[in-house]
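It would be a great kindness if you could assist me with a short task in structural biology. I am sending you one protein, given as its amino acid sequence and as whole-number tokens for its backbone shapes. I would ask you to consider whether the tokens describe a fold that such a sequence might reasonably adopt. The full record is reproduced below for your convenience.
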Amino acid sequence: MVRGVASRKLVAAVRAAASRGFASAPEAVLDTPQTEIVRLASSAPVLVKFPERAWGASAVLPQHLLPAQVGNAERVSVVRHAFASHDATHEPLSDLVGALGEGRVAVAHEASQPLRRLIVDEYLLGPSGQHLLQKTGTDLLRFLSREGIRAVHVPDVAAATAGAVNSARAVARGVRQSTNEVLMVAPTAFGFNDQAAQDNHFMHSSTSTSSGKAGGSVTHKALREFAGLHHELTEVAGVRVSLFQHSLEHGTPDAVFPNNWFTTHAAGEAAGGVSEPTLAFYPLKCPNRQMERRKDIVEVLRARGYSSVWDLSGAEKQGHFFEGTGVLVLDRVNGVAYVNLSERADADVARQWVDRMGYKELVTFRTVDPAGADIYHTNVMMAIGTDVAVVCAEAVPDAAERAHLLERLRRHHTVVEISNAQMGAMCGNILELEDGRGLPVLAMSTQAHNAFTPEQRAVLRRHVAGLHHAPLDNIEYIGGGGVRCSLAELF
């Protein structure tokens, strides 16, 4: 109810505005905060958010709600919360969206959560000088993608627009930590690999491995799990997958883990250190894993047009091994390579890799599991995303190495420390990808997801738009690798 100075004309205006979907609009013009605007790009619509709650779209945008500087804009999009309750407090647009330069915008992590979803009503300036409704309730993130605006998922929009958030700086430089495209090999001839089990203590043999045809029940169980992971990534997360299969004739029981034998790198990676798109092949320890470098897949990779192809696989003949992103956990934005030295991660090859690829720094250390055995790969004990990292620091026995590892990670990332038990549940074997909206998400197994504490999951969710998981119990138990091992990134 309007009191005191309210006139009949003002009351009528309030009621008219409310009937168009904007409660108490004339009062909003008089009060603070005022209508807020964000300019996305020269050719994109202007985003606006009104100080009073909009309860829906109106056929014609009330011109008196628009600031003078955007009153004649050709396209205006009104931002509103899809599912905020009637008594929710006003949130400034500057807390939700912030411009990072032409064609880039920081979006608060809340906007990727279902209950906190932001939508826009799209208006076009008509011949009469009024903005007419074109589309109602478009998801903000999909709207930005359609307009060619890069949305950067951040925990703090104000910090991002001030240049204090790693992801915002990365996007400003055109550097990506994660990709929307991966290569996967379905476990169509999966089984226990005796050769790999010699130093992979995450593996467990199964009496059912040799039963039946093509690996029998083990293969069939692995395929059911893998199909669930493939569905979660492609149909739910919107990740593009180049999918291959293998047969018993290939002699590659671990082919489901293709990330060990090749990597790809975009120009500009490592803070500009990678000068051109690069495809690299790696020396693998186990003879039957070396056969995973199949000619057909290699030809497909080469056909993608990488201007630089680097083949390190010849080091196998000298007994020097370096198994791709099994041993390399990369901060692709800042150019830091983390390597757990082991039989599968040669120190000399690691230094050669960093120099050749143009990375800025190499951080090496050694790890052991609770039984005192060396941990075979880096990617089972740590993972790095754009803004968040996961690490099992207690697996690093040397205090100086452990302190250096944590210090280096904390320079650019929020660090989630996991225990040895969580490492055994594959909490370190996770991977940041980009979903179909271009936002960072984490892919992991259901075992890993459930092993993270609720507090740890909350931290992860502040830095990514979603946690995508599927059960991978048999592949993890028998193969000794999880979701990250199953994904070879294509940049």
DSSP finds 15 helices and 24 strands in the chain.
